[in-house]
Every structure is written in C-alpha cells, then in structure tokens.
Amino acid sequence: MIRLENVSKVYGADIPAVRDASFDIPKGEFVFLVGPSGSGKSTLLRLINRQERPERGNVWVAGRNINEMANSQIPYLRRTMGNVFQDYKLLPNKSVFENVAFALEVIGKPRHLIAQQVPQVLELVGLGDKEDRLPHQLSGGEQQRVSIARAFVNRPLILLADEPTGNLDPSTGEGIMSLLEAINGTGTTVVMATHDHRVVNAMRKRVIQLDRGIIVRDQERGVYE
Amino acid sequence: MIQRISYAFRETIASFRRNVTLSMAAVITSAVSLLLVGATFLMQRAFDNLLVQWRGDVGMIVFVRPDVTPEALKFVEQNLKSQPNVIDVDKLAYLDKAASFEEAKRVFAGDTTTLSLLSIDTIPSQFKVVPKTTDPELVRSLADQYRTLPGVAGVSLAEDEFDVISTLSGFVRTVTIAMSLVLLAVAVILIWNTIRTAIFARRREIEVMKLVGATDWFIRVPFIMEGLIQGLVGAMVSCVGLWTLNSAWTSGVAGFKAGTGVSSLVVPDSYLNGVMIALLIIGATAGGVGSGVASSKFLDV
C-alpha cells in the first residue's frame, strides 16, 4: 500500500529530516513510527500525503509513484487518505456535524450522501449525540474523535495519524487507540507517528524507529524501547 | 454542480462580510478610477463633437477692415459668392460690426485686456466662409486669394483654432488616462490585498480543505469571485456616478444657444451606454485578474 525507496528529504541547506528511508507497508497493516522529537516522523507522514516532496528516492502509494503525479492529481490522492493531528485541526466556528460534513462537501459529495454518512461515522466514534456542539464545547478526547470521524468519513485506504494521543491523558488516549484499532479492523492501513511508550507497548504492532532521520529499527510486534 | 456553485456563493458572501472595511476600500478605489476612465472617454467624445462641428461650420473667416468702403465690401462679398464650386454659398454669413462685437464679447469673455481694446468702431466685420472641401491645403490656398483683396484685414483659418483645441484635448486625454491607469493599478492592488487577507483569515480552513482533497480550483473560485464582484460593484458605482455627471452636464449645456459650440459638448446616449458596458467589463476583469493572481500566489500546495 505504501512503499518508500531510498527516500531523503532535506530542509533548508543541510538539515536532513529523513535520510535514505526504505520500507514497505502492506494493505491493512498498523504501523507505529517512533522516535524523539525532530527524528523525522512527521516528515515521513508529510512525504506520504505529498505535503512534501523528497530530494531523492520514490514514494509509492496504492501502486502509484506519487512524486511523478501531476499537481492536479494530488487532491484525488488525498481523497484516499485520512489525516489525524495532535491539535485536531477542527474548524472552530463549525459544529461537530459540519466539521465532518465539510470533508465531504469540499470534494463535491451530494448532500443526501452527506446527510447519511456523517451521522453514521459520528455514531462509530461515539459522538452520535453531540452533532450540534462546537469544538470548544468538547473535551480534548472528544475533539480528537471528531477529527478521526472527519478522516474516516470518506472510507480512506490509509489513515495517517501524527501524535493523535499527544495532547490527551492516558485513559482518553486508550479510547482513541481502540478507535484507531477498530478503523484498522475495517481494512484501512494505519500509520501513526508517536513517542508515547505506553501506547506502543500495549498494542504490539509493527514499529519503525527513527533517529535523526535514519531508520534504526523496523520490527514486527515491537515495543518502544 | 449546483451544490458547488452555491458553496462558492456562500463562501464569497461570507468572506465579503468578514472584510467589510477592506472590501469597501477596494470597491471605492475601483469606482473612482473607473469613473475617471469613463469621464475621459466622454470628454474626448465631446471634444471630438466640437471639433467636427467647427470643422463643418466654419472653415475660414475673412475679416474686413472697420474703415472699408461699401464698394470694397461689396466686391469681397461678390467674389466669395462667385465661387460656388469651392465655397458653400448657402452657409456664407456676414457679421457686421455690431454682430462681430457681440461675438467678440462672448469669445473673449475671460480676457478683459483684449476686450478693452475692442470697440464697436474699431472691430472688423467678418465673413464666415464654409469651404466645400475639407482638405487643409486647398482651404489655405483659398485663404491666400482673399488676403490681398482691398479692404480685407486678414483671413483666419478655423484650422488654427482647431489645432489649439486638439492639442488641448490631447493633453487632457493623456493626463486623465494616466491618472485613471494609476488609480486602476491601485484598485487592483487593493483587491489583491483584500484577497490575501481573506486567504490568511481562512488559512486553517484551506489547510483542512487541501488535506481532505479539495481541488485547487474549488478552493480558489470563491476568492476569485470575491475579487471579481468587488471590481464589478466598483464599476457599477462608477456607472451611476458617470450617468449622474453626464445628465447634469447635458442639462446644463442645453441652456446654451444652438451653434455656439458649447451645445455640441454632449455625447449621445448610445455612446454613454457603450462606455458604461466597457467600465463593467474592465472592472470585473481587473478584479478577477487581481484576485486570481493573489489566490494562485497564496494557495500553493
């Protein structure tokens, strides 16, 4: 589903963010990217959704080399992916329903489909009764659930999560993780960047560890260390 | 499709409301600049009318000395009438001293020095001659024929006045066009800045839109429409202003006597309508281009 071949990304003159990274993530896998802040986890995610382009190497998503894709094709690539962030990135003046519906509106989904799919996905993330709330009326965990609902509402092939539990207390974080696991269970490939030991150690999934932009470990059923 | 259009309209209106002050500034600047552009066109057309009328009505004036003998006067008149091939005899007019003095008072209304030198006794009487040809060379040679006749004080060609007027109108045109271009540039920059501010205000929303796979055009269109509407509204305001100015001018000019020149300083309605349509197109294009450039510059992936 996702394949990196000797990918390098350099910011500025000589600050390497990712050096010679190669890995292969099959469809339906759940992968943790771990490592300290600044080790290149977020950059890897941004290379996969093509917010960044590598200086060297190739990134393949669903069988297509995305570095060779025309800019006009990128929106369609992104429709096959969901993104979840540490700071949720919800629109503060839109309700829970509108935030999720927004993701479908801007890709031109017809209204009756939106009216059908949004309540379904909100039910799935456990917010069926909070459709009309505004983000600031929700707890952090609930806001992250809205953001996951928005990422998943279009049934993406891939879900990219950048420190989704970073702002949450451990028990709330556990709830988010079981939600991501459930989404993974529907066949969606999940790639999650984190430095949360507890989460990684509890799940025992594949772990790719980065250190200053270099992949130092790639282990099935790994722990954080 | 309808959903996308309604989305674009909603976003445009919402954005307009978020930036009322800046939007108003952009609208007013484009209105003022377009009003100037329009006024330039109308003034130019009015000048042209005047010139055409002068050229058509009077080609040449033969001034007769104030102390001319009746015989010499008669000779000049007969001479003029004897050339119906070159001179439009029907339009030939003789202004005696009294009439010439009246005309001088009007022509030199702002020039008291010249006026004080003239009196009913010292003023030359004049023949207003309309040549049948409009070829300046032929008219000049015609004038030369009369300069040497006894009793003739001089011959003046309307061509000379014509040159003054066309130089003047050319100057006015250059200045007003330059001013309106500068103002138009300012309007485009203001629209550009409004759109930049609007994009900045919505950068979070735009980031989300990109991540969920909205196409660039989907994101861009509301901003382009916003700029286009700003330009168009500015143009509409300028049309109202231009129409009002033109009506006031036309009714003011209507008070002057026909044939005095001033009364020809009006433009036909069809021309006014054409100018207004041009202003609407210029306004919409300038606004659309300004915001299009801004939105592609600030919305890069």
From TrEMBL, chain A:
<protein>
    <recommendedName>
        <fullName>Cell division ATP-binding protein FtsE</fullName>
    </recommendedName>
</protein>
<comment type="similarity">
    <text>Belongs to the ABC transporter superfamily.</text>
</comment>
<dbReference type="GO" id="GO:0051301">
    <property type="term" value="P:cell division"/>
</dbReference>
<keyword id="KW-1003">Cell membrane</keyword>
<keyword id="KW-0547">Nucleotide-binding</keyword>
<dbReference type="GO" id="GO:0005524">
    <property type="term" value="F:ATP binding"/>
</dbReference>
<dbReference type="InterPro" id="IPR003593">
    <property type="entry name" value="AAA+_ATPase"/>
</dbReference>
<dbReference type="InterPro" id="IPR017871">
    <property type="entry name" value="ABC_transporter-like_CS"/>
</dbReference>
<keyword id="KW-0131">Cell cycle</keyword>
<keyword id="KW-0472">Membrane</keyword>
<dbReference type="InterPro" id="IPR005286">
    <property type="entry name" value="Cell_div_FtsE"/>
</dbReference>
<dbReference type="InterPro" id="IPR015854">
    <property type="entry name" value="ABC_transpr_LolD-like"/>
</dbReference>
<keyword id="KW-0067">ATP-binding</keyword>
<dbReference type="GO" id="GO:0022857">
    <property type="term" value="F:transmembrane transporter activity"/>
</dbReference>
<dbReference type="InterPro" id="IPR003439">
    <property type="entry name" value="ABC_transporter-like_ATP-bd"/>
</dbReference>
<dbReference type="GO" id="GO:0005886">
    <property type="term" value="C:plasma membrane"/>
</dbReference>
<dbReference type="Pfam" id="PF00005">
    <property type="entry name" value="ABC_tran"/>
</dbReference>
<feature type="domain" description="ABC transporter">
    <location>
        <begin position="2"/>
        <end position="225"/>
    </location>
</feature>
<keyword id="KW-0132">Cell division</keyword>
<dbReference type="InterPro" id="IPR027417">
    <property type="entry name" value="P-loop_NTPase"/>
</dbReference>
<dbReference type="GO" id="GO:0016887">
    <property type="term" value="F:ATP hydrolysis activity"/>
</dbReference>
TrEMBL record, chain B:
<feature type="transmembrane region" description="Helical">
    <location>
        <begin position="270"/>
        <end position="294"/>
    </location>
</feature>
<keyword id="KW-1133">Transmembrane helix</keyword>
<feature type="transmembrane region" description="Helical">
    <location>
        <begin position="228"/>
        <end position="250"/>
    </location>
</feature>
<dbReference type="GO" id="GO:0051301">
    <property type="term" value="P:cell division"/>
</dbReference>
<keyword id="KW-0812">Transmembrane</keyword>
<dbReference type="Pfam" id="PF02687">
    <property type="entry name" value="FtsX"/>
</dbReference>
<feature type="transmembrane region" description="Helical">
    <location>
        <begin position="171"/>
        <end position="195"/>
    </location>
</feature>
<comment type="similarity">
    <text>Belongs to the ABC-4 integral membrane protein family. FtsX subfamily.</text>
</comment>
<keyword id="KW-1003">Cell membrane</keyword>
<dbReference type="InterPro" id="IPR040690">
    <property type="entry name" value="FtsX_ECD"/>
</dbReference>
<feature type="transmembrane region" description="Helical">
    <location>
        <begin position="20"/>
        <end position="43"/>
    </location>
</feature>
<feature type="domain" description="ABC3 transporter permease C-terminal">
    <location>
        <begin position="178"/>
        <end position="286"/>
    </location>
</feature>
<dbReference type="InterPro" id="IPR003838">
    <property type="entry name" value="ABC3_permease_C"/>
</dbReference>
<dbReference type="InterPro" id="IPR004513">
    <property type="entry name" value="FtsX"/>
</dbReference>
<keyword id="KW-0131">Cell cycle</keyword>
<keyword id="KW-0132">Cell division</keyword>
<feature type="domain" description="FtsX extracellular">
    <location>
        <begin position="60"/>
        <end position="155"/>
    </location>
</feature>
<dbReference type="GO" id="GO:0005886">
    <property type="term" value="C:plasma membrane"/>
</dbReference>
<dbReference type="Pfam" id="PF18075">
    <property type="entry name" value="FtsX_ECD"/>
</dbReference>
<protein>
    <recommendedName>
        <fullName>Cell division protein FtsX</fullName>
    </recommendedName>
</protein>
<keyword id="KW-0472">Membrane</keyword>
